[in-house]
From TrEMBL:
Protein name as annotated: U2 small nuclear ribonucleoprotein auxiliary factor 35 kDa subunit-related protein 1
Region entry Disordered, spans: 346-449
InterPro entries: Nucleotide-bd_a/b_plait_sf (IPR012677), RBD_domain_sf (IPR035979), RRM_dom (IPR000504), RRM_euk-type (IPR003954), U2AF_small (IPR009145), Znf_CCCH (IPR000571), Znf_CCCH_sf (IPR036855)
PANTHER family linked: U2 SNRNP AUXILIARY FACTOR, SMALL SUBUNIT (PTHR12620)
Gene Ontology biological-process entries: mRNA splicing, via spliceosome
Keywords, ordered alphabetically: Coiled coil, DNA-binding, Metal-binding, Repeat, Ribonucleoprotein, RNA-binding, Zinc, Zinc-finger
GO CC annotations, alphabetized: ribonucleoprotein complex; U2AF complex
GO molecular function: DNA binding; RNA binding; zinc ion binding
Mapped zinc finger ranges (C3H1-type): 163-190, 302-329
Biased composition (Basic residues): 347-371, 409-427, 435-449
Coiled-coil ranges per UniProt: 106-137
């Protein structure tokens, strides 16, 4: 049963195949007949000829286009090759230029290095010569200080800020100018002289803070001229013996001006140039009161023209802005012989009876014991911060600590006294206000109104 079904399916499949083959054969025969019929037609023959012509034209056109494309490609290739060669030539030229530039730069650098080396050698040679000259000069100066003789001419060379300008009158008289080196006039400075100037050597709260009284009137209420002068006496007794160790001092002046270029300036005049040079060598770069000293040679031709003559009469019209010297009176009328040219040497110093406080109250003067001259090195003279073999001061660390403690204790006492006086003033002010209120609130006052 199963085999018959398979055979039947296979027979049907073969039958369909034979039918398809017969139909295909019939279709091919019809197409063959139609093709033979068309070939016999003149129109078909003409169409075939036309198609052949078109085909030949297409082949010829394709050949022509292909030839043109080949020629264009050859031209493009030739152009590309030429451009590549030109680019290679430019690159080679650029490399050559770069090599030449590098070689030139290297030659210039070597030449510059050679010049720099020559300049350095020249500077080193000049520096060595300068050091040698300086050593010889210092040797001559030391020999001049120790043994006397003539001063080396290379030392006594004056300098000027504006040689072609007129001389500044204030600088020629006092050795200082409020404009400094910015002044439009000439400032001649002697190389060596008998007068030493130490700018801002003396420092005190009374003169350092006096310029701001106009803006802070309470700052200077507790300081008067007596305290400032007492502090100056201590400074005088501490500093003058140090200067006298170098030679005979014929003039010693300390400025109490308020202007910055004169404030605390100290002028020391020696009897001989030799002593002045020795003092300059000793005090230049030395430390005092925590500040380093800057010693200068100056020329004061006349103390009468340098010092303000109206200052001691309390009639100076410039006041704190005066550019002449306002100096402290030396204790015991010292150096009076050098003061004859300005005529007030024998007058006694008159302390100001005016107090800067609003209540006109005098602050109690504190008694200060006069220090022993042997202990003057233990107060404010100090060593340079950098330890060196040639240190001008041999104070011990223990003495410096004691000095700093003394200074701090004095400052604390001053602050404490100042606060006490301020509280007293405030109490008096409050009492006066209280009395005024009581007076206004009293019955008699109301009846009178």
């Amino acid at each position: 049963m199963g085999r018959h079904k398979v055979w039947r399916a296979l027979a049907k499949k073969m039958r369909r195949k034979r039918i398809r083959q017969a139909l295909a054969q019939k279709r091919d025969d019809l197409l063959q007949k139609e093709q033979e019929k068309r070939e016999k037609s003149p129109r078909y023959q003409a169409w075939l000829a036309e198609q052949n012509v078109l085909e030949e034209f297409r082949h010829e056109e394709e050949s022509r286009l292909q030839t043109e494309r080949d020629r264009q490609w050859e031209r493009d290739e030739e152009l590309a090759q030429r451009q590549w060669l030109e680019r290679q030539e430019r690159l080679a030229q650029a490399r050559e230029e770069k090599t030449k530039q590098e070689l030139k730069i290297r030659e210039e650098w070597e030449l510059e290095q050679k010049k720099l080396k020559e300049v350095e050698e020249e500077e080193r040679r000049k520096q060595e010569e300068k050091l040698q000259k300086q050593e010889d000069l210092m040797r001559q100066i030391d020999d001049f200080i120790k043994h006397g003789g003539e001063l080396p001419p290379s030392v006594n060379i004056s300098t000027e800020t504006h040689p072609d300008k007129p001389i500044c009158p204030f600088f020629s008289k006092t050795g200082a100018c409020r404009f400094g080196d910015r002044c439009s006039r000439n400032h001649p400075r002697p190389g060596i002289s008998k007068v030493l100037l130490i700018p801002n050597f003396y420092s005190h709260f009374g003169i350092d803070q006096s310029m701001i009284d106009e803006y802070d009137t309470d700052l200077m209420l507790e300081y008067d001229d007596r305290e400032t002068y007492q502090h100056f006496r201590e400074f005088y007794e501490d500093v003058l013996p140090e200067f006298e160790q170098c030679g005979r001092v014929v003039q010693f002046k300390v400025c109490c001006n308020c202007e910055p270029h004169l404030r605390g300036n100290v002028y020391v005049e020696y009897a001989s140039t030799r002593d002045a040079v020795g003092a300059f060598q000793k005090f230049q770069g030395r430390w005092y009161g925590g500040r380093q000293l800057n010693v200068e040679f100056t020329c004061v031709s006349s103390w009468k023209s340098a010092i303000c003559g109206l200052f001691f009469k309390r009639r100076c019209p410039k006041g704190r802005s005066c550019n002449f010297l306002h100096v402290f009176h030396n204790p015991a009328n010292a150096f009076a012989g050098a003061d004859h040219d300005y005529g007030y040497s024998r007058r006694q110093w008159k302390h100001s009876s005016r107090s800067r406080s609003r209540s006109r109250s005098r602050s109690p003067s504190r008694k200060r014991s006069r220090r022993n001259k042997d202990d003057r090195n233990n107060w404010r003279w100090s060593e340079t911060p950098e330890p060196s073999a040639g240190s001008v001061n041999g104070d011990s660390k223990q003495n410096r600590d004691q000095n700093s403690e003394k200074i701090q204790s004095q400052r604390r006492r001053k602050v404490k006294d100042k606060e006490t006086r301020r509280r007293r003033r405030s109490c008096r002010t409050s009492d006066s206000h209280r009395k005024e209120r009581r007076r206004k609130s009293s019955p008699s006052h109301s009846v009178s109104k």
